Amino acid sequence: MAKHAIFLSGPVGAGKTTLGRTLAGRLSGGFVDGDDFSDSSRPWYCSILQTSRAIVRTGAAILENKNVVVVAYPLSCINWIYFRRKLAESGANTIFVSLQASYAAIVDERRGRAFSADEHDRIQTMIAQGYGARPFSSLIVDSGKADFLTTLVQLESEVRRMIEL
Question: Containing domain of residue 25, as a range?
């Protein structure tokens, strides 16, 4: 059976981790939160290679025992190229999903997450930079249009169709 690495990208608060963890469980796969490998004492651009290498190592290790790994991590084009190439070396097909949502939807208190002032700024910057609709995405899902379960079902349905599980 084919191996698949599914990346969920998007701005802070779009649902990468929450949707990703749940999607991985529903697909009987593993989950990697890219933020777990970030060095919070350094700016992201100083630790991006270290973080990316750790994501690949961890994802490849999961794929030794499972057919699917879901990775939550905001992607730039260079990340996309790197992950696609490195995970192909491990025999995995890569699927890149952009999670988009409006600023108002992300910060809506009904979503149950409070953001710091810096996070508010980062959300707006990431939306403006197009993190929610990357041109290299296999799929774009608006995580701000519906409730969590409806969004999850849509995401799972589309991903299953792509990987034919």
Answer: 3-163
Q: What letter does residue 43 receive in the DSSP assignment?
A: -
Give mean pLDDT in consecutive 10-residue pieces for the chain, a chain of 165 residues: 94 97 98 91 79 96 97 94 94 97 95 93 96 96 96 97 84
Contacts of 147 (CB under 8 A, 6+ apart): none
SS3 label, residue 64:
coil
Output the pTM of the full model: 0.94
Strands 92-100 and 68-72: unpaired
Query: Which CATH number characterizes residue 59's domain?
Result: 3.40.50.300
Q: Which stretches of 54-121 are assigned E, i.e. beta strand?
A: 68-72, 92-100
Domain count along the chain:
1
